[in-house]
Amino acid sequence: MDLVENGSIDIHVKRHPWELVRYEIIKQKVKTMLNGVPAGIQPVLVDIGCGDAFVVQQLYHEFASYWVKNIPSDGTSNVVAIDINFTPENINTLKTVNDQVRYLQDITELNIYKECAYIVLLNDVIEHIEDHKGFIQILDRHFAGVSVFQLFITVPAYQHLFSNHDIDLGHFRRYKVSQVKEYAHDLKMDILESGYFFFSLFLARSIVKVFEPPIDVNRQGIGVSAWKGGALATFLFKSVLYIDYSVGSALRKLGLDLPGLSTYIVMKR
After folding, report:
1. What pLDDT, in 10s, does the model give residues 151-163?
2. Cβ neighbours for 68, distance < 8 A, ≥ 6 positions apart
3. Is residue 42 part of a domain?
């Protein structure tokens, strides 16, 4: 969960089905990126804008055998969570859940080892950054010269769906695939995969948008409330979204790219 949505960290929070299925998608992409790391090179996972670190903590356990090898001599972890909204209290709370992940407030605190392969996640982050091009340049400089640099980005899709809800979440924009591909060009990275996911939510959002009031540019971002659905509602919603993603992925392989509420890209250099 984004710390913009929930300013404090609640390690017992109910996960929204959207968040749970998105994690499954991220897990699949990370597995593919790990398989793309040449033998003998140590992978390092960096989740930038990690929020309450749910995703990166889960990925640490999911692929534990990859991270425990060749720990740097300074004792730092090969799995790193970065969020500018972290407070010392947040970090202490997160360490009670998983103290094998390193928690940082700024990317400048991250030690870079040129001989390593970096897998960097930007999951629903760049839409929160007004100077997104400047941020991409920072990434370019920070990971320059590393053995392998792979980047997985997810962002909300389609500017015509931009609404007061986006303002509540602190979004500056939404994206088409062609726009996230510009980041690959700026970073001089090869595009391994790109597309959309959650077609059903795209349809629902498109319908709701018709009946919404005009965008209030002076609106103050207020975040969103936590998921309050029960176990059955969570299971059903999660199942529908996972089937949605699976069908979309299958159709993409056949050359049919459905629209979705989220845009993604995987790139490498």
Report:
1. 999 999 999 999 9
2. 78
3. yes
Instruction: Tell me the pTM.
Output: 0.92
Q: Is 191 helix (H, G, I), strand (E, B) or coil?
A: strand
Q: What CATH number is given to the structural domain containing 143?
A: 3.40.50.150
Q: pLDDT class for 22, splitting at 50, 70, 90?
A: very high
Give the chain's domain count. Answer: 1
Q: Which of 197, 188, 180, 198 is nearest to 266 (CA)?
A: 180
For residue 43, with 0-12 CB atoms within 10 Å meaning exposed, 13-18 middle and 19 or more buried, which class applies?
A: buried
| Local structure of 100: helix, strand or coil | coil
The mean pLDDT value of the chain amounts to: 91
pLDDT tens digits along 73-125: 566 789 999 999 999 999 999 999 999 999 999 999 999 999 999 999 999 99
Domain assignment present for 1: no
37/31 Cα distance (integer angstroms): 10
